[in-house]
Amino acid sequence: MTRRLLFVHAHPDDESSKGAATAARYVDEGAEVVLVTCTDGDAGDVLNPNAEPIARDAMRGTRARELAAAVAAIGFTRTHELGYVDSGYHEDPAEVPEGTFSRVHLDEPSRALAAIVRRERPHVVVTYPENGGYPHPDHIMNHLVTMRGLELAEDPAADLGADPASEHATTLRPWRVPKVYATSTFPLERLEALHAAMLEAAGESPYTEWLESRADRVPREEPDTRVRCGDHFDRRDAALLAHVSQIDPDGFWFGVPRALEREHYPYEAYTVLRSDVLVQRVEEDLFAGLDVDALDAGVRAPTARGA
């Protein structure tokens, strides 16, 4: 049977900065790799100083075109867009506009995601940590929607409502995802490895300020899984550069030469949120411990860590 992996991301460009090389690797290995994007990215600003200004009413279309180009670069098997309005970045939750993604009732997008999960039947889902990875309200909501959507997807009594991709969502068989991960884009071990390598090679590092003043945003625990994907960093870079309005080709994301990165940290890291099989840290494969043939035949292993 074919392995199936589903990523749930908040905005256009998150698929490129969080797990893109992992996705490309599994695509090349023959897995079905599916992307869900929750918002339209409409609240984004032009962050690339070399990009042309974009009128506010044109931002949504721009972000959609950039997402399509990034998807092609990575090679996702299928994509789904939930289409919610980008909340924008607000440190004060009271400032988040009504009607945006992080302000809708949790079960609304969760039902939509649950219907996708039932259709796609992934063996592994990747989302964000409980704190969002950083305190963007849409990233925090992304975690909540994913976890609630997974509950609904496996509940035979859940009413998922109308589903445009099928006659009715409730006619789709319930599906329990056996492994659920959070991305860890910049775990401490990655920052320290690349920081030290850059200091030795160039005498300076793009991570100096981060390590000195932004320690609260750095996951300090050892990841549960490191996926070796250095050979796919070029696909990640192509996807990042597809987001012309967001990514400066001379900026932060390209501050470390790729040859140095492949030598010192050729991984993307993940933390287990839930697993029905024993996780033997540190694993090298998101599908470690899973018998996908048995899962697709309806055979479930006893619930293990994090259920």
Strand content: 5-15%
Roughly what percent helix?
25-40%
What's the total number of strands?
Answer: 7
The CATH class is Alpha Beta
Structural class: alpha/beta
Rg is 19 Å
Mean pLDDT: 91
Distance between the termini: 25 Å
Biggest sheet statistics: 7 strands, mixed
Instruction: Just name the CATH architecture.
Output: 3-Layer(aba) Sandwich
User: Any idea what the CATH superfamily is called?
Assistant: LmbE-like
Number of domains: 1
CATH topology: Rossmann fold
User: Which word captures the global form?
Assistant: globular
Spans of at least 5 consecutive residues with low confidence: 301-307
User: Helical stretch count?
Assistant: 10
SSE pattern, N- to C-terminal? EHHEHEHEHEHHEHHEH
Widest beta sheet: strand line-up: 3-2-1-4-5-7-6
Topology:
Elements lengths: L3 E6 L4 H4 L2 H9 L3 E8 L19 H16 L3 E7 L22 H14 L3 E4 L9 H18 L24 E6 L3 H15 L5 H6 L11 E4 L4 H10 L15 H7 L2 E9 L16 H5 L11
Parallel strand pairs: 1-2, 1-4, 2-3, 4-5
Antiparallel strand pairs: 5-7, 6-7
Key words describing this protein structure:
14% strand; seven-stranded mixed sheet; disordered C terminus; alpha/beta; Rossmann fold
Describe the structure.
With 307 residues, this protein is an alpha/beta fold. It has one domain: Rossmann fold (3-Layer(aba) Sandwich). It is 34% helix and 14% strand. The chain contains 10 helices and 7 strands. The protein has helices at 14-17, 20-28, 59-74, 107-120, 137-154, 188-202, 208-213, 233-242, 258-264, 292-296, and strands spanning 4-9, 32-39, 78-84, 124-127, 179-184, 225-228, 267-275. A 7-stranded mixed β-sheet has the order 3-2-1-4-5-7-6, with helices on both faces. The longest helix is centred in the middle third of the chain and has 18 residues, at 137-154. The protein is globular and about 60 Å long. Mean pLDDT is 91; it is low at 301-307.
